[in-house]
Amino acid sequence: MAFVNLKNKLIQVKIVYYGPGRSGKTTNLEYIYRKFHQRIKSEMVTVKTHGDRTLFFDFLPFDIGVINGYQIKIQLYTVPGQVKYDATRRLVLRGADGIVFVADAMAVRRKMNIQSLQNLQENLASYKKNLRTTPWVLQYNKMDLRDNGIPMLPIEMLEQDLNQEFRRPYFPASALFGTNVAATLKKIILLTIASIRKELL
Amino acid sequence: MSYTLDQKQLDRIEDILKTELIDNGVRCVFLIDMAGNIITNLDNGEKQHDIYSLAALAAGNFGAVSAMAKIIGENEFSLLFHKGKKENIHFNKISSEFLLITIFGNDISLGFLRMKVGESVEQLKGLLEPLGGDHI
What we know:
The structure holds 2 protein chains of 2 kinds. By secondary structure, chain A is α/β, with parallel strands linked by helices. Chain A has a single domain (3-200), classed as P-loop containing nucleotide triphosphate hydrolases (Rossmann fold). Chain A has 5 helices and 8 strands. In chain A, strand 6, helix 3 (110-126) and strand 7 form a beta-alpha-beta unit. The two termini of chain A are 15 Å apart. The mean pLDDT of chain A is 93. By secondary structure, chain B is an alpha+beta fold. Chain B has a single domain (7-128), classed as 2-Layer Sandwich (Beta-Lactamase). Helix content of chain B is 40%, strand content 24%. Chain B is built from 3 helices and 6 strands. A 5-stranded antiparallel beta sheet of chain B has the order 3-2-6-5-4, sandwiched between helices. In chain B, strand 4 (80-83) and strand 5 (88-93) form a beta hairpin. In chain B, helix 1 packs antiparallel against helix 3 (110-128). The two termini of chain B are 21 Å apart. Chains A and B meet through strand 1, strand 4, strand 5, helix 2 and helix 5 of A and strand 1, helix 1 and helix 2 of B.
């Protein structure tokens, strides 16, 4: 639910990183925070458990500059990925303008990815939204583990499991090393802003 | 669904918040939506807060407390207020989509604050109604 402030010429956009537990949603935000530190005026907010797992959400606001005379403020959130935190996950998803689905490309995580995408669809439905009309992209994370001999899901299989129905843009990535983190972010920002523009015009 | 407020609407909202709250000693007031976006914020110039982080946490906090209320069979809790040594924070739901947050010191009583917030909310409801949400 983007808010357009005509007085200050400011648009606030909410982008949510969704996906199963330990897929690398927080790592994406941490990389963005390090990489674009000069542009980010405030600290990254994290609500974590003692075990360093996301309990509620991570939050990172930053400005991407002026488009058509409007300052665009992007607000990045992550949801807690663990199954038991569904109620808080649904709260964070509220008013999301765009979504990045971060899948874990390790072979052992296949089922978790599919369940998490299903959960995303259920939670979107509670806000009368769906994956057909909401801007979203997929990120297949942890690609760097391939070099360590860890069994990974082939891209074709990830696509078949998660994206066959939707055909959305996807990015093989390594959030830890920053591979395709910025590309993922750039794509979701472009898609989300295009969608908001279409909605408001 | 995205929404827009123009200069006239925002000026009117700020006028209400300034007259009812800032001029009566409130340090800082935010009008936010439940997604965590800031519609407007005013302060008395004494302190600068990280307003975007505050708004995100406030929306999350309010959502969490509302969910807790439903679990125990309450529609919602009528008072949501955190007391600190010097600063206090008060949340007031305007509708299902909007929330008014005030930060105030110990020089204002909670009762007085709640009365002024209540008066502000009544005035804000009319302005925000066209934007949707179930008003209470």
